[in-house]
UniProtKB/TrEMBL annotation:
Family in the record: Belongs to the bacterial solute-binding protein 1 family.
CC terms in the record's Gene Ontology section: ATP-binding cassette (ABC) transporter complex, substrate-binding subunit-containing
Pfam family, any one: SBP_bac_8
Signal peptide bounds: 1-22
Alphabetized InterPro entries for the sequence: SBP
GO biological process: maltodextrin transmembrane transport; maltose transport
Keyword annotations from UniProtKB, A to Z: Signal, Sugar transport, Transport
Protein name from the UniProt record: Multiple sugar transport system substrate-binding protein
Length: 442
């Protein structure tokens, strides 16, 4: 499972839980850099992550490469630890030295509450070249100038399309604009004699698989906030364009018919995934899907391309997110923890090895250019996007993903015909988000 579905919400009520975290037991967070361990020092570093199964093993291997630099430091990797467990650990004083989180939506909470310690002093002391990391990735690992996390690989999102289905529909090139996507979706759709959907060219339902506001917003040039920090759904035209595009496709399928069709589709990370089963022709997803398809659906002839954009000159835009690493408040070995984080963030061979193993995109320029990086035709789309200057990251707020949930819920209501006035509805969501941020105190 991947970041946007497997990560638990750290705290729906935003700052309350993490404020409690900052008041937890153990050593406090500090703006001073703890001393690095000596090369021969013996200690144990505890690492918590939410990786499991095969990915857990591959991440453990990457962690062990740290012993090339510090042979006497033992790495204790505990998997299946979500953000709720990290939060509880900080509150109780039972905290790891390094926490890996899939929930980049929570970076505002991590940084503003002190749950993750600030890293600026370490970065300044060690003269770390942050320009090695794409600006969009740097943005989703800090909050209001406070860097409290570093990236461990990234996910980049693009279009997957079934080559045979598009060819059968007379489509000779992947769509590049939303108008072209609509036309392709209509042409590639197949219905039974009774009108039931058998194949959806593109399934527009918000919340379905990777159809999420954060992932889709960049393709519509939809801004999350105004210049003065207020929610911008009603004032940024991209949101109206996104909602209108989705509603147009929902109306083409028929809402009830679409819901019946969707109810029969497989889970996102099972072999019954709709794209694997030939039930949808076009979708948005991350680079990791290439590995799932090869393992679970080798019969599917698919290709990848940048996802269509509202404006032709923005083609090549892509959303990015990824795993983040931080030193929790109360960590027993913060100096050694930083050395491990720095190693995982910038050691090219380690980054490339892990990227090849779990099929994520490297997070540094050097790793993206490494000849050791395994890049086939499908994966190349995501590597090229990661090298570009059109990547867009997560919107960072102090309320976790509450703003994303608000947009998703509203979109589902609008698609179903329950919202008669789109403009007024978007203003209402803006007010909801602004109120939640105001209540957070941050």
């Amino acid at each position: 499972m991947r970041k946007h579905t497997r990560a638990a919400l750290l705290c729906v009520t935003a700052a309350l839980t993490l404020t409690a975290c900052a008041a937890g037991k153990g050593g406090g967070s500090t703006s001073e850099a703890a001393a690095a361990p000596g090369q021969d020092d013996k200690l144990t570093l505890t690492v918590w992550s939410n990786f499991s199964d095969r990915e857990y093993g591959e991440v453990t291997k990457a962690l062990k490469t740290f012993n090339q630099k510090f042979p006497n430091i033992e790495i204790k990797h505990e998997g299946s630890q979500d953000d709720d467990k990290i939060t509880a650990g900080i509150r109780s004083g039972n905290t790891p030295d390094v926490a890996l989180s899939f929930t980049t939506d929570n970076i505002g909470q991590f940084c503003s509450s002190g749950a993750f310690q600030p890293l600026k002093a370490y970065i300044d002391r060690d003269k770390v070249d942050m320009d090695q990391i794409n600006p969009a990735v740097r943005e989703y690992t800090e909050y209001k100038g406070n860097r409290c996390a570093m990236p461990m690989l990234t996910d980049v999102y693009a279009m997957y399309y079934n080559e045979d289905m598009l060819a059968a529909a007379g489509i000779t090139a992947p769509p590049k604009t939303m108008d072209e996507l609509y036309d392709a979706a209509v042409k590639a759709t197949k219905r039974a004699p009774n009108g039931d959907i058998e194949v959806a060219g593109y399934l527009p339902t918000m919340g379905f698989y990777a159809n999420r506001p954060t992932i889709l917003a960049p393709y519509f040039d939809a801004a999350w906030e105004t210049a003065d920090g207020k929610s911008a759904l009603a004032t940024s035209p991209g949101w109206t364009e996104m909602m209108t595009f989705q509603k147009k496709l929902v109306d083409f399928y028929g809402h009830d018919a679409l819901e019946r069709f969707r109810a029969g589709l497989g889970q996102e990370y099972s072999a019954d995934h709709a794209f694997h089963q030939g039930k949808i022709a076009i979708m948005v997803d991350g680079e990791y899907r290439t590995a799932f398809l090869k393992a679970q659906a080798p019969q599917v002839r698919f290709r990848t391309a940048p996802f269509p954009t509202l404006k032709a000159d923005q083609y090549g835009t892509a959303f990015t997110t990824g795993t983040i690493m931080g030193i929790p408040k109360g960590a027993k070995n913060p100096g050694a923890a930083w050395e491990l984080i720095k190693h995982l963030s910038f050691d090219t061979d380690t980054i490339v090895g892990l990227a090849n193993a779990i099929k994520n995109v490297p997070s540094t320029k050097a790793a993206l250019e490494s000849p050791k990086l395994e890049v086939d035709e499908a994966f190349k789309t995501f590597v090229d996007l990661a090298r570009s200057d059109k990547l867009k990251g997560n919107p960072v707020t102090p309320i976790g993903d509450a703003h994303i949930k608000a947009v998703t819920d509203f979109s589902v209501s609008y698609q179903s015909g329950q919202v008669p006035d789109l403009a007024a509805g978007l203003k209402g969501v803006d007010q909801n988000i602004d109120d939640q941020i105001a209540k957070s105190g941050k």
